[in-house]
Amino acid sequence: MERLAGKICIVTGGARGIGRAIAGRMAAEGGKVVLTDIDREAGQAAAAAIGCTFESLDVREEADWARLAALVPRAEVVVNNAGITGFENGPVAHDPEHATLEDWRAVHRVNLDGTFLGCRYAIGAMKAAGTGSIVNISSRSGLVGIPAAAAYASSKAAVRNHTKSVALYCAQQGWAIRCNSIHPAAILTPMWEAMLGTGEDREARMAAFVADTPLRRFGTVEEVAAVAVMLASDEAGYVTGTEFNIDGGLLAGSAASPG
Ligand SMILES: NC(=O)c1ccc[n+]([C@@H]2O[C@H](COP(=O)([O-])OP(=O)(O)OC[C@H]3O[C@@H](n4cnc5c(N)ncnc54)[C@H](O)[C@@H]3O)[C@@H](O)[C@H]2O)c1
């Protein structure tokens, strides 16, 4: 059975990584997927491979969302996935003492402003039917402090909280428009490439990144897509305002626990 049969699904940042996997899985489940991304070339290629529609969309830009609203005025599923770490062009100081205001704002503009605009678009596209599912991709970093990536952690914590405001607002209006956040940790995607590098120590770096993860491995994009489909589907009809960790057990315990 196709779990998203006939549902119009918008996915941001769908050109690669987690967004691409979510778009592919949603299409496989019968969704009419509109894959969006700031990267037009990669986005078009991904959409062609999946067999879905592509629209260019920079999540930071209100005008882009207005254009999408004109093109796709109704949607049943919106996945706010586009995000950046701020380390895309190599290491930069993002700790609370040395991060520049410019770098801080650049991360929040994509991750937080983009999610705010995506949720606002989604409400407009769903309220006539009074039903729908918004899935916001936050992070494990939105649940704990990350000293070296303070801007990223702050933006993802805000995404988690805004998810709950959206969920409660929609419920207050009497709409069955659900909004939930997903919190992945260490999912092997191109986002990690700048941090892993290509040198001889790549394997050692990978092992170090997951050394504290109980399952001792990176997660896969398919594992995130499976949860996104579940939250998007009618099977999750009573699930709203909640958060779903996909972290190999990382947040289940504490390094400081006795024994
Ligand atoms: N990979 C992980 O380990 C991990 C862990 C936790 C959370 N996440 C989150 O999952 C989401 C996807 O991450 P990923 O690892 O697939 O990243 P990625 O870097 O592989 O892909 C991100 C995509 O977003 C697009 N994008 C960037 N800026 C954009 C903008 N302004 N407007 C529209 N599109 C834009 C990029 O072009 C790219 O296609 C992000 O929100 C990320 O923070 C990832």
Automatic annotation (TrEMBL):
InterPro entries: NAD(P)-bd_dom_sf (IPR036291), SDR_fam (IPR002347)
Keyword entries, A-Z: Oxidoreductase
Superkingdom of this protein's organism: Bacteria
Pfam annotation, one family: adh_short_C2
Gene Ontology molecular function: any one: oxidoreductase activity
Family recorded in the similarity comment: Belongs to the short-chain dehydrogenases/reductases (SDR) family.
Protein name as catalogued: NAD(P)-dependent dehydrogenase (Short-subunit alcohol dehydrogenase family)
Organism of derivation: Sphingomonas yantingensis
Upper classification of the organism: Bacteria, Pseudomonadati, Pseudomonadota, Alphaproteobacteria, Sphingomonadales
